[in-house]
Structure formats: C-alpha cells, structure tokens
Automatic annotation (TrEMBL):
Residues 43-263 form the Radical SAM core domain. Its cofactor is [2Fe-2S] cluster; [4Fe-4S] cluster. S-adenosyl-L-methionine binds at residues 156, 175, 226. Binds 1 [4Fe-4S] cluster. The cluster is coordinated with 3 cysteines and an exchangeable S-adenosyl-L-methionine. [4Fe-4S] cluster binds at residues 57, 61, 64. The gene is hydE. This is [FeFe] hydrogenase H-cluster radical SAM maturase HydE. GO terms for molecular function: 4 iron, 4 sulfur cluster binding; metal ion binding; transferase activity. Keywords: 4Fe-4S, Iron, Iron-sulfur, Metal-binding, S-adenosyl-L-methionine. GO terms for biological process: sulfur compound biosynthetic process; water-soluble vitamin biosynthetic process. (3R)-3-methyl-D-ornithine binds at residue 131. Pfam families: Radical_SAM (PF04055).
C-alpha cells in the first residue's frame, strides 16, 4: 500500500479516497490527528451549552426526525424567558458559549432572535452560536450586528444530486450561497456533513472534506447518519462509527485550527464515542442545557443520549468523562484560532 505522510497536508488531500477506503492507514491517521489537535488546541475541551429551543421545522429533509411531516414528536417552542434562563444556566455551569439551535421555524422572526441575542449579550459574557437553518442575508447581518458570534449551517453532503434527493425543499446551490453570505456577514462559520447516508460514495466523502477546506471553516460538525423510523429513510443502515472517526481525523489534519465537536450522535452509537472522538482530533463537546421536559421531543434520530438528564447532571458528567482521557474543560469562549 502506498505510504502516506499524514503531516503533509497536500499529500493527504491528494489521497483522501485511498485513505478512506483502506483501514491500514488508521493507526497513523489517528495518531497524527491527535498530535495536531494537541499542538494547536492543547488538552482543554471547549464546552458549548446547547439550547434546542424549537422543534418546529418547515422543511422535509428525508433523514431528519424534525421534518414537518413527522407527527410523532410533540412540538414545542421555548419562550424568550426560557431561552434566556437556559443561557444564564450555561454561564453558571462554566460554559463559554451557548448554541441556539432549532428547526427552520419562522415563528422566530428577525426581531425575536435579535432581541434574544442582545439580551444574552447584555446579561452574560457568553459567545453565541446560532444554528437556525437557512434564513435571509438580511437576517444573518442583523443577528451578527446584534452580537451573534458564530453560525452553524451543515451542508450534509457536497454532492448536489444526493443533496437534492434528500432535501425536497431547497437546493444545494442555495445552501452554499447561504454559507458564503454568513462568511461575508462576519460570522465564525461552521458547517459539516452526515457520514453514511444512503447512496453516499467514498468520492462524496472526499469531496465533503475538500469543501470544508475550500470554505476554510472555523467549526466542523460531523456525525454518522442514524436512521429515524419516522422518516422516508426508515430501514436504511446507519452510518459507520469507524468511518466517521476517520472523517473527523482527516478534518483535523486539513483544518488544524478548526474547532471539531465530539458529537452527541457518536455518543449515541458508542458509550465511549465522544471520548474516542476527542482522542482522534476533536476538541469540543456540547452539553445540553435545554430544560429536561423538552429534550425527548428534539428527535433528530432515535435513542439520543442525555434526554432524561438536567443541565446540572451534564455539567457533573462531562468533566468526569474528560478526566478518564487526561483532558479537562477549557476556559473562555473558545473563539476561532484564526
């Protein structure tokens, strides 16, 4: 098998398909990714408090349990007061960032989100990440001016045909246009993809990595596709845990300064999944600070972990988990190294 120097970023980019297709590279790949993580980010793990404030969505994405056609979850919206309260809890628990995430819910207008962002900024020292799906360029600009620091908008797959097969609302080019609008608006930009989607090829995954690099992302969130039985992809196989770790490690090598979360989906597939991700390039975790009574209905995929816990439970659990791999909670907002 062709030898590859994983410290040579150009060589890695030229051989992505080969690396993804052959497990013989795994040991050197994972070792190098962890060394690069340690060099640029150290052993501190940034904790981002996640507030899933609405599970309403006007989209019909085939893989997602929040799709508007799914009648299974009880729909909810947190009030502005509840959102602010959850943000205050995140700061009290020592998190440097709060992530405001929802389905594409137009109930939360430009003005409402701007008010929430401003109030969080007035009452806390938290960095704010928004993850609200596709909105207008004006909305992005107004929320940035209100104080939002980052925006997370995953493209899920870089293959336009596969994208449009899985997304009956919207199109691939519009998603890419939105990502560039966000960069132009001054956000620290996050995106990412799902690993193991039906009909996804190794070439698609390699192209995902190249698109991460082209976009010069500040954050990359990736996780395995997990089949939700209440979607059109019911019965499909889940994405590979090992392949997701390989994608994570490759992302660390090609974007050494990016923040990479050990996602909840990895923890759902493997009880030590998040710890394994942190040992292969990841440097972020996202403890949930959504009020406990709402969590079970944010059903992106089944069997999601931590839905029966409250924010304080998570704040005790995560440092203990980090200690088992000689890592510790980082301090500060954890802004982009760029």
């Amino acid at each position: 098998m062709q030898p590859i120097n994983f410290n040579d970023q150009l060589q890695v980019l030229d051989n992505l398909e080969l690396i993804l297709s052959n497990d013989c590279y795994n040991q050197n790949l994972f070792k190098t990714a962890d060394e690069i993580r340690q060099k640029y980010h150290g052993d501190g793990v940034h904790l981002r408090g996640l507030i899933e404030f609405s599970n309403y969505c006007n989209r019909s994405c085939y893989y997602c349990g929040l799709r508007k056609e799914n009648k299974n979850p009880e729909r909810y919206r947190l009030s502005q007061k509840e959102i602010i309260s959850a943000a205050l809890t995140a700061e009290e628990l020592g998190y440097g960032t709060v992530v405001l995430q929802s389905g594409e819910d137009n109930h939360f207008t430009l003005e409402i989100i701007a008010e929430i962002v401003k109030e969080i900024k007035e009452k806390t020292d938290l960095a704010i990440t928004l993850s609200l799906g596709e909105r207008t360029k004006e909305e992005y600009q107004e929320w940035r001016q209100a104080g939002a620091d980052r925006y997370l908008l995953r493209f899920e797959t870089s293959d336009p045909q596969l994208y449009e097969k899985l997304h009956p609302v919207g199109n691939f080019q519009n998603r890419i246009d939105n990502l560039y609008w966000l960069k132009e608006s001054g956000y620290q930009l996050g995106s990412g993809s799902l690993i193991g989607l039906p009909d996804q090829s190794v070439q698609n995954l390699a192209d995902d990595l190249r698109l991460y690099k082209k976009l010069d992302l500040d954050m990359v969130g990736l996780g395995p596709f997990l089949m939700n039985p209440n979607t059109p992809l019911a019965g499909e196989d889940n994405g590979s845990f090992e392949l997701t770790l390989k994608m994570l490690a490759l992302t660390r090598i090609i974007l050494p300064k990016a923040h990479l979360p050990a996602t909840t989906a990895l923890g759902t597939v493997d009880s030590k999944g998040r710890e394994k991700a942190l040992q292969k390039g990841a440097n972020v975790m996202m403890p949930n600070v959504t009020p406990r009574e709402y969590r079970a209905n944010y059903q992106l995929y089944p069997d999601k972990i931590c839905t029966d816990e409250n924010p304080v439970d998570c704040s005790h659990c995560i440092p203990a988990r980090l200690k088992t791999i000689d890592r510790f909670p980082a301090t500060g907002p954890g802004h982009s190294l760029k």
